[in-house]
Amino acid sequence: MKNNSVAFIKAGRRQRRRRWILVTGFLTLLSIILCCAMLILGNTIYPIEVVVRTLLGEQAQGVSFAVNTIRLPRMLAGLFTGFAFGLAGNTFQTILRNPLASPDVIGITSGSSAAAVFCIIILHASGAFISIASVIAGLATVIVIYLLSRGKSFSVGRIILIGIGIQAMLNAVVSYLLLVGAQQDIPEAIRWLSGSLNGSQMHELPPLIITVLVFAPIIIVLRKHLSMLELGEQSATSLGVNTNKTRITLIVSSVCMIALATATTGPIAFVAFLSGPIAKRLVGVGFSNVIPAGLVGVNLVLLADLIGQFAFEVRYPVGIITGILGAPYLIYLLIRMNRKGDL
Amino acid sequence: MTSLLDSKKNLLNPHVPRNFKAVLVICFIMLVLCVIASLVFGSRPVRFNELIDGLFHQNVDSYGANVVRKRVSRTIFSLFCGAALGVSGALMQAVTRNPIADPSILGVNTGASLFVVLGIAFLNITTANQYIWLALAGAAITAVFVFGIGSMGRGGATPLKLVLAGAATSAALTSLITAIMISRTYVMDQFRFWQVGSVGSANWSSIATFAPFLIIGIVIAIISAPALNALALGDELASGLGVRTGLLRLIAAVAAVLLCGATTALAGPIGFIGLLSAHTIRLMLGPDLRFVIPLSAISGAIILTVSDVTGRLIGNPGELEVGVVTAFIGAPLLILLVMRLKVSSL
C-alpha cells in the first residue's frame, strides 16, 4: 500500500517534470526561431546562410550594415529585455502572491523611466549614468511603496493601490520634464514612454546584457526558495528559508533587471505582467515557472516586435502591440479574480 | 429604533454644519483670489491698469487689455470645468459608496478620449459640438463597464476592485488610442493638445456648448443629494427610508457622466479634481452631501484654476498642461486615502 502511493507520487512528479521539460524546450525553440526571424526579415529578406556568414564576419555590400548594425542589436535588445521583464515580473508576482503586483502595474517601471528621462533632459547624461540612475530610482520606488504601505497590517491590495498612485505622480513628472526639455532631447526621451526596439545600438547593450547575466542566475538559483515563499511566510520559514534575506535578494535582483531593461528600451507594456501567468498556465503547478516566465517574456517581445514591424502598413513600436495584447488579458484576469473572490 | 428615527430626522431637517458659513466665506474669498490670479499671471504678466482696461473699458485696445480679455474666457472655462469635475467626483463617490472614485481613476475620461479619437480618425469630426456627444457616449459605456467589472464577486464594489478595473480599462483604452494615433498624423495634431488636459484652448463658443451640461448635471446632483445621503447608510436602510436605490444610482450616475464627459470633450482628460475637491470639503464639513456637492463645485473650480495658474507659472515661457499639475497634487491624496483605509475594506 505504502509502496503504491510512493510510486503514485513519483509518477506524478515524473509527469510534471516531463511537462516542464516539454514546455521549456518548446519555448526555447520558439525563441530561437523568432531570433532568426528578427535577423532574416526586414526590407530585404536575406537567406539564413547569408545571415550566418555575415554574423561570422564576412563583409558584403549592404548585408553587413543591415544585419550587424540594425537587426542584431534589435534582436539582442528584444531578447534580453524580454527575459529581464519576464523573470523579474514573475518574481514580484510570486513574492507578493498576486499576479497584479507586477512591476509595471505598481509603478516601479515608471520610477526607472522617470529617472532615465530626467538624466537625458536635465543632466544631458548618457550610457552607464542613465543605467545607474534608473536602478537607483527603481529601488527607491520599491522602498517608498513599501514604507507607505506598511500600515498596521500587511496587504497586497494596499501595495497595488499605492503603486498606482505613485505611478500617476511619476507620469506627471515625466510630462513636466518633456515640457521643459530642449527640443533636440525630446525624441530620445519619448522612447522611455512607450517602449520600442527602434534604433537599438550595439554600444548601448552591454550594461543590460551584463546585468541580466549576473542577476538572472541568482533568481534561477533561488527558484526553489521562491516557490516556498509563495506558500506564505510561516511555511517558508519552517521549510528552512531565511525569508527576509531571500526576499530582499530576489527583489533587488529583479529591480536591477527591470531598471536596466527599462533604460535600454523603455517600459514595454505588460510584458512583466503577462509572462508569469502565461508561464504558470503552461507549466502547471508543482514545478517552478521561473525559467519559462523569462522565455515567455522573450517570445512576447520578439513576436510583438515582428508583428509591429511587418503585420501592418504602418510600423508600430513593440510597446503598443504588447499593450493591445496585454490589456484585454489584464481585464480578463481581473474578472476571473473578482469572480473567485481573490481580491 | 431610536437611532433610525434620529437618522431619519437628520435626513429631513437640514442640520447645517457648524462651520458652514466660515467655509463658504473662505471658499468665496479664495475663488475671487484665484480668478484675479488667473487673469494676471501668465507668460505675459499684466499691470493693474491693463487689467481694469481689459475688464471694464471695452474701447481701450492696448496689448495688455487684449491679453486680459483672452484670459477671461479661459478663466471662466476653467472654473466651469473644475466645478463639473468636482461635482462629478462627489457623485461617483456617493454612487459607488467608495472614497476613491474619480472620473480619471475609474477610467471614464479615457473612454471619452477614445471615442473622440475614433471620431476624429474615422468620422471626420472637427467641432466641439460633435466631440461632446461622442465623449458622453464613451464616458457612459466605460463607466458601466468599469463598474460592472469592479462590482463582480464577493463584497461588491470595493475600492481595490474599482480602482484596478479602472486602471486596467484605462490602460487598454490608452494603447488603442496610441495605436490609432500613431499612424495618422492629422489625428495626432488635432488630438495632442487635449490629450494631457488643457483649458488653454477655451473660447466663448466652447463655454456656451459646455454650460447646459454643467447646469443640468449640477441641478440633478443637488436634487438627488438628500436621497444619496440615505444611500450612504446602505442599500437596505435607504430602501427602508423610501429611496428607490436603483433609480437613484442611475440618475446620479447619468449626472456624473454628463459632467465629466462634457469636460473631457472640451478640455481633455483632467484627473484627480473630483478626489481633491470632494475630500477637502468633506474634511471641513462632514459627509452631508447637501453641502458637500455644491461646495465641491466651488472647491473644484478653485483647485482647477489654481492648478492652471501654477502650470502657467512653472511652465513659463510655455505652459504646463493643467492635467499634469492636478495629477501631481492629486496622486499623493490618493495614496493618503489608501493608507487610511482598513485592510478589510480594501
* Apparent shape of chain B: globular
Task: Output the helix-strand order of chain A.
Answer: HHHHHHHHHHHHHH
Give a count of the beta strands of chain A, DSSP E runs of length 2 or more. 0
CATH superfamily of chain A: ABC transporter involved in vitamin B12 uptake, BtuC
Q: H/E element string of chain B?
A: HHHHHHHHHHHHHH
**What's the CATH architecture of the largest domain in chain B?**
Orthogonal Bundle
User: Biggest sheet of chain A, open or closed, and with what strands and sense?
Assistant: none
Just give the CATH class of the largest domain in chain B: Mainly Alpha
CATH class label of chain A: Mainly Alpha
Task: State the share of residues found in helices of chain A, binned by percent.
Answer: over 70%
Oligomer: heterodimer
Q: CATH-wise, what's the superfamily of the largest domain in chain B?
A: ABC transporter involved in vitamin B12 uptake, BtuC
Output the structural class of chain A: mainly alpha
Strand content of chain B: under 5%
* Number of structurally distinct domains of chain B: 2
Largest beta sheet of chain B, briefly? none
Quick summary:
Chain A has 343 residues and is mainly alpha-helical. Helix content of chain A is 76%, strand content 0%.
Q: What does the model show?
A:
The complex is a heterodimer of chains A (343) and B (346). Chain A is 76% helix and 0% strand. Chain A is mainly α. Chain A has a single domain, classed as ABC transporter involved in vitamin B12 uptake, BtuC (Orthogonal Bundle). Chain A is globular. In chain B, helix 4 packs parallel to helix 9 (204-231), helix 6 crosses helix 7 and helix 6 (128-150) crosses helix 11 (245-267). Chain B has helices spanning 2-12, 20-40, 48-56, 63-96, 108-122, 128-150, 159-182, 185-195, 204-231, 235-240, 245-267, 273-285, 289-314, 322-340. Chain B has 2 domains: 20-70, no CATH class; 83-345, Orthogonal Bundle (ABC transporter involved in vitamin B12 uptake, BtuC). Chain B has 14 helices and no strands. Chains A and B meet through helix 6 and helix 14 of A and helix 7 and helix 14 of B.
